UniProtKB/TrEMBL annotation:
Keyword Ribosomal protein belongs to the record: no
Protein's recorded name: Hydrolase
Organism: Salinivibrio siamensis
Highest taxon of the lineage: Bacteria
An example molecular function term from Gene Ontology annotations: hydrolase activity
Length: 360
C-alpha cells in the first residue's frame, strides 16, 4: 500500500495498543514505524527488474520483523522505562507486522515467509491506493488528536471500520471470481490461468486477465453491472526471441507469468499485465534489442514510461464502475482500433468459442 496508508495504519495500531498512554508522540512513533519496512526501496539490487522483484522481500518477512521489532522495543525501553516492556514490545511488533499483512492484500505480492522458497502472498483484493480504506484511519487519528482522552478508542474504531472494508474487499473479489467462472464455463477460457484485481481506488470495478498459449484476454466486471456477461478484448502475448535468462525468470516468477512480449521497432519490451488500465501500464521493461542484421541481443534492463492515459480514461473508469457496460477494457465506448491498432474488437462471453468438449 501507499506510504500515507501505512503510516496511518501504524499510528492507529500504536494508539490502540498504547491505551491510556495514547498521545501525539505515540501516534507519530507508530506512523514512523509503519513505514519502516518500505525502506527496502533504498536498496539498489543492480537494475530496475531486480529492484522491482526484490521489493517487499526480507523487510516484509514475518520471520524477520518480530525480531527487529523486539530489538527496537528493547532499545526504546532501555532508553525510557516509562512503559512496561511487554507493552512496548506489543506496540512495536504489532505496528511492523501489520504493514506486510496489509501489503499482502494487493496484487503486487509480498514475501511474508522469506527466506523460505514459497510464492509471495497476493490476495489482490485491494488496489495499492484505496481512499475508502485509508480515510477511516485518518479520521480516527484526527479524532485522537482532538479528543486525546478518547485517543485509543478512536484508533480502535478507525481500525474496525477499515478492517470491515478490507473484509468486504475479499467478499467482492470472491463474487467476481464466481461470475468469471460462470461466464467462462464451456468456453476456450475455461481452465486457463487467470488473475483478478481491483481497478484504481475502489473494490467495485475489477480487471480480469486470462492467459492463453498465444494470447490473453482482458475484461472488466463491476459489482453494479446489470448484465453478468463480460466483454473480452484479446491481445497477443508475443514471444521472447532469446534463451531464457535469470532476469526474465525473476520477472516471470514475480508476475506469476502474466507477462506480454512486444517488439517495438527493434526493442523487446516485457510488460507485467497485472498492473495498469487500458494502455497505461507502469511495469514495462526493455530487455533486448535488435541489430541491423535482425539478431536479438540482451541489454541492461530499463524501466519504460507507463504509457499514455487519455483524459477520458478516469471519467470512463467511473462510468464503467457505475455499471455502464458499453465501456470495454480499453475504457472506450466504441472500438479504439482506428486510433490504437494494438487493441482488438471486444467480444462478449456468449460469443467466445466453445471448448472441444462443449462442441461435442
Amino acid at each position: 500500500m501507499d506510504s500515507v496508508t501505512q503510516a496511518a495504519l501504524g499510528a492507529t495500531v500504536a494508539g490502540l495498543v498504547a491505551g491510556k498512554r495514547c498521545s501525539p508522540k505515540v501516534l507519530l512513533a507508530g506512523a514512523a514505524l509503519g513505514t519502516l519496512p518500505d525502506l527496502d526501496v533504498l536498496i539498489d539490487y543492480g537494475d530496475p527488474v531486480a529492484n522491482t522483484v526484490n521489493h517487499r522481500g526480507f523487510s516484509h518477512s514475518l520471520f524477520v520483523l518480530p525480531w527487529v521489532g523486539a530489538l527496537i522495543a528493547w532499545c526504546w525501553w532501555r532508553w525510557q522505562r516509562q512503559w512496561p516492556l511487554w507493552q512496548v514490545m506489543t506496540l512495536v511488533i504489532a505496528v511492523l507486522v501489520t504493514h506486510p499483512l496489509l501489503d499482502a492484500m494487493t496484487v503486487y505480492g509480498t514475501k511474508l515467509f522469506w527466506p523460505l522458497e514459497v510464492p509471495s502472498v497476493a490476495v489482490a483484493s485491494l488496489f495499492i491506493i484505496d481512499p475508502l480504506y485509508t480515510v477511516p484511519l485518518l479520521v480516527a487519528l484526527i479524532s485522537a488528536l482532538v479528543w486525546r482522552h478518547l485517543g485509543a478508542k478512536a484508533c480502535g474504531v478507525g481500525l474496525m471500520v477499515s478492517s470491515l472494508y478490507l473484509a468486504s474487499s475479499v467478499y467482492q473479489l470472491q463474487q467476481i471470481k464466481t461470475r468469471v467462472a460462470e461466464q467462462t464455463q464451456g468456453t476456450l477460457l475455461e481452465g486457463q490461468p487467470l488473475i483478478i484485481m481491483p481497478t484504481p481506488f475502489n473494490t467495485l470495478l475489477w480487471r480480469v486477465v486470462v492467459s492463453g498459449e498465444e494470447q490473453y484476454w482482458e475484461g472488466l466486471a463491476s459489482r453494479l453491472d446489470a448484465n453478468p456477461s463480460i466483454d473480452w478484448v484479446a491481445q497477443p502475448l508475443g514471444e521472447w526471441p532469446l534463451a531464457n535468462s535469470d532476469t526474465l525468470s525473476a520477472l516471470r516468477t514475480f508476475s506469476r507469468n502474466f507477462i506480454r512480449f512486444e517488439n517495438r521497432n527493434g526493442q523487446q519490451v516485457v510488460t507485467d499485465l497485472r498492473f495498469g488500465v487500458a494502455a497505461y501500464q507502469p511495469f514495462q521493461f526493455l530487455l533486448a534489442e535488435q541489430n541491423t542484421d535482425g539478431d536479438w541481443y540482451p541489454v541492461s534492463p530499463k524501466q519504460l514510461e507507463p504509457g499514455p492515459l487519455p483524459e477520458t480514461a478516469l471519467p470512463a473508469l467511473w462510468q464503467r464502475l457505475l455499471g455502464d457496460q458499453s465501456i470495454d477494457a480499453k475504457l472506450c465506448r466504441q472500438s479504439c482500433q482506428q486510433t490504437d491498432p494494438r487493441w482488438a474488437e471486444p467480444i462478449s462471453s456468449a460469443a467466445l468459442p466453445a471448448t472441444a468438449s462443449e462442441k461435442q
